[in-house]
Structures are given as C-alpha cells and as structure tokens.
Specification:
CATH class of the largest domain: Alpha Beta
CATH architecture of the largest domain: 3-Layer(aba) Sandwich
Shape: globular
Number of domains: 2
Structural class: alpha/beta
Number of helices: 6
CATH topology of the largest domain: Rossmann fold
Radius of gyration: 16 Å
Largest sheet: 5 strands, parallel
Helix content: 25-40%
Strand content: 15-25%
Order of helices and strands: HEHEEEEHEHEEHEEH
C-alpha cells in the first residue's frame, strides 16, 4: 500500500537510483503517471515528457479496457476484447476516434509548454501510477520503441504479475515494487488517490520544460 503517488514515486526512485542511464528520459502516461514521473525525473536528474496513450473502454463499462491507442494511432487490443458485451466494429471505431480526440487535445496543451523530447539513443523510463490490464502501457511501448531508444524501462508502483511478464517481452526491464496476483483498480493500493486534472499535468511539465520552450 502506498500513501499517495509521491510516496510510490519515491519508492521507484530508490530502486532506479542504483542504476546508470544514458541521457535519461522519463516518459509519463497522463494523467496520474505525470505525478509519478515528476518525482522520478527530479530524483534521477532526468528529462520529463509525456507519452500519450488512452484506454479503449468497453460499452457501459468504462473501467474495462478493450485495449488502448497511442498518440501515433497505434492500437493494442486485449486478447479478450471481443468477449465484452456490446462490442461491434462500429463501436470500436467510434471509441477509437473519441480517445484520439482526447489525446489530440492534451497533445496541443502539452506541446504549448514544451517540445517533444528526443528519444533515439537514450535510456527511456516509461511510468504510470499503476497497471491493471496493461493496455495503455503496451500501446505506449510499441510507439516509443519505434524511435530507437538505447534501452526501454517500465517503472510502475503496482501491477499484476502476469502483466509484468508480458511487458518484459516488449522492453528491457520492468521495475515494480508491488507485484500482485490480480486486482480490479489501481486506486486500491493508495490511501490517497485523487483525480489528476489536465491543468496539473501542464503545471508539472512546465516546471521541467527546457528553457527555450
């Protein structure tokens, strides 16, 4: 159990600070992941940016992920997505377009305060405040890996063991201080887990923006 996202980030930082990185870049998945990323980037002396990835929600079950879509438009689909009630090709297309619109809105806001960070040849640490289905992280990893980082590390406070094993096949390592068998919601593992607003994301990114931004 973590007190809050800052507490979780400090625990991640304690593990990662023992490693050496090449021009480290922390890429956070908004919104909660940016709070984690800000603490981690400060502790590691790393650059902070975001990678935009959104869950594709099941009909009338917003917590159930069919998969996810990244800012590049790459779609990752969970294996059991077609078993969710009410999922049709039309619904999936509409949900994809809805989430792309959310991504584009946040992308414009983010890039107004900082340019997109270079990834090639760097140690990239992808963070979120936890992993449930793993879909948003998988979509993000598949997009980030196409930009040729030197290494790609996933750092999350909590995740199911089976998802950790799956993610390890798509990156150079997963750091997770609280691996668990299974759970329903990431918030279960936090005493204080407030909703993070876009304005908070922008405020944190502005603090880490290059001076020229």
């Amino acid at each position: 159990m973590f007190h809050d996202r800052e507490d979780a980030a400090r625990q991640l930082a304690a593990i990662l600070s023992e490693r050496s990185f090449r021009q480290p870049l922390v890429l956070a998945i908004p919104r909660g992941g940016v709070v984690i990323g800000a603490v981690l980037a400060k502790a590691l002396g790393a650059e902070l940016d975001v990678t935009l990835s959104r869950k594709l929600r099941a009909p009338e079950q917003s917590e159930l992920a069919l998969g996810a879509i990244s800012e590049s438009g790459h779609v990752y689909v969970n294996q059991d997505a077609d078993e969710a009630p009410g999922v049709t090709d039309e619904y999936f297309h509409c949900e994809r377009e809805r989430q792309l619109a959310v991504i584009e809105s946040l992308r414009r806001a983010v890039r107004s305060v900082r340019p997109k960070a270079s990834i090639e040849g760097r140690s990239v640490i992808v963070v979120d405040d936890g992993i449930a289905s793993g879909a948003t992280m998988m979509a993000a990893l598949q997009t980030i890996s196409s930009h040729q980082p030197t290494e790609l590390i996933v750092a999350v406070p909590v995740a199911p063991l089976d998802r950790i094993h799956e993610l390890e096949m798509h990156c150079n390592g997963v750091v997770c201080p609280l691996p668990v068998q299974s759970f329903w919601a990431v918030g279960q593992f936090y005493e204080d887990f407030p909703t993070i607003k876009d304005a908070q994301v922008i405020k944190l990114l502005r603090q880490f923006a290059p001076q020229s931004a």
